[in-house]
Amino acid sequence: MPAQAIDPSAYLQAGRELTDRLLEKYLPPVSSEPKSLHEALHYSVMAGGKRLRPQLALAAYEYCGGSVKSEELPIHYAMAALEMVHTYSLIHDDLPCMDDDDLRRGQPTCHKKFGEAIAVLAGDALHDIAFELMARTGRTEPVTELARAIGTAGMLGGQTADIEAEGRQVTEEEITEIHRRKTGALIRCAVRVGAILADAPAELLSRLTIFGEKVGLAFQVIDDILDIEGDQKLMGKKVGSDSKNLKATYPGIVGMPQARRTAQQLIDEAIAVFDEGDDNALKLIALFIGQRQS
Amino acid sequence: MPAQAIDPSAYLQAGRELTDRLLEKYLPPVSSEPKSLHEALHYSVMAGGKRLRPQLALAAYEYCGGSVKSEELPIHYAMAALEMVHTYSLIHDDLPCMDDDDLRRGQPTCHKKFGEAIAVLAGDALHDIAFELMARTGRTEPVTELARAIGTAGMLGGQTADIEAEGRQVTEEEITEIHRRKTGALIRCAVRVGAILADAPAELLSRLTIFGEKVGLAFQVIDDILDIEGDQKLMGKKVGSDSKNLKATYPGIVGMPQARRTAQQLIDEAIAVFDEGDDNALKLIALFIGQRQS
């Protein structure tokens, strides 16, 4: 579908709604034991959010010719898995021993609402459900892609480096490497898993991998910008949290004007993997990420 | 191999040594970034332990005719995965917001040694590596078995119920259900994954599942007994930790003599899935669990 033909906000809203339905469907019901833990899962997962990772996976899947003409498909499991794993990372990141955040998506964080023990277990549970869903695709590649993206070579490695960089001088290369792992790896994974489930040929998978890498980096640069300049109401979390935690941020290192230029350049480079005139939903999502205010 | 022909302690030591080699092989090297996180993984995983879950998986695999005539096999990935996931559960269980334990296997617990943030991330990392290894078997069933065993219907559900039962009166049925989930589910999973990787026929898989369930329950009843009566030096952790944390324990509910009888009965029932004269390594491990002092 050409991007011009798509109303961006309607498209993104439809993707959010689909993702929300999938998440409700694949979370264990609150009525089943252990109720308190299941309640915490629903609370954190259903608190909203842009659902960009599932939407990127779906857009990549469709771009690669994957069919969505069924109620229940491997891509749907993968979409839910990606958002659950993202939520797990937020819950553990917000813990007092990590970023110690009280607010997330406009609501008290999981540990503020349910206590630390349940928050640790809720993160663990989402981590777990994500892998169960990836295995439900019937293929091992999505499991492997996810494990690598969020493991010590990816997201967990980025979080560790982020913690260890607190309070000390960090170079632009270092912060870019932290971003690549902490946020970029899972976004790249979302795009790749969508393409893999559509059986994309190697050349196409490579191009989309570059797209995912660029968009993932742009996403985190913009996150850093919004943490300084964002509207707390729109963000649903405290702004200035990075600076309070003495976190290294991209604008903190290169300055705000350069940070904006870098974000734009990364979005441009992401979109450049597509031929001119090849307007599609991946491009639309990339443009949305480039312009997001929250 | 008939159990009579096996020297139990030599057999179990060989299994421990094989597991240790596999764990060393499949953990990310300490020399690679993020070094502090990788160091914490090695510290916790290589601190020793009986390696019973991997050994049960291997024994089930061999009992079902699985070949071990190669250096690197799916069963080896599964063995390492089971121990990594077990270690992840211990690291998160020991956290201040959970059981708040200072000592594990005779050494400071992960958070005592590396701080809470790294301990949370180390548990997450092992959780992750375990799924990557399960996927490396090339089959999705082991991934699914593991996810279900340690998810909210299994281990995490048991941990939640365990926390929620603290300080209140618990029935024998409730504690048995907590044990079934908290400890039993992963032990059952170990046996099943071994059998599945050897392509065990359905009837055999069912019998071994019962074996795994009984052994898993026995293991936790004995754990509760040892927490009261065990030798702290042999255990490598503080005894009396359950009572300090107002944890419900099996002997606390039914009394010590009945707890001992239940443990013995569960071991007898586990062994009863094998014909008389069918002496094998699974039986040997069950008998060892029945007699363990640490």
Describe the overall structure.
The structure is a homodimer of 294-residue chains. With 294 residues, chain A is mainly α. Chain A has a single domain (6-291), classed as Farnesyl Diphosphate Synthase, CATH 1.10.600.10. Chain A has 15 helices and two strands. Chain A has helices at 8-26, 35-45, 52-63, 74-94, 110-114, 116-136, 141-150, 155-165, 172-197, 202-229, 232-235, 241-244, 250-254, 256-271, 281-291; strands at residues 103-104, 107-108. A two-stranded antiparallel sheet of chain A has the order 1-2. In chain A, strand 1 and strand 2 (107-108) form a beta hairpin. In chain A, helix 7 runs antiparallel to helix 9. The first copy, chain A, starts with 7 loop residues before the first helix and ends with a helix. Chains A and B meet through helix 2, helix 6, helix 7 and helix 8 of A and helix 2, helix 6, helix 7 and helix 8 of B.
State the gist of this model.
The structure is a homodimer of 294-residue chains. Chain A has 294 residues and is mainly alpha-helical. The first copy, chain A, is 69% helix and 1% strand.
* Class by alpha and beta content of chain A: mainly alpha
How much helix, percentage-wise, in residues of chain A?
55-70%
The CATH topology label of chain A is Farnesyl Diphosphate Synthase
How are strands sequenced across the largest beta sheet of chain A?
1-2
Nearest-angstrom radius of gyration of chain A?
18 Å
Strand percentage of chain A lies at under 5%
Biggest interface, chains and residue tallies: A-B, 48 and 48 residues
Q: What general outline of chain A do the C-alpha atoms trace?
A: globular
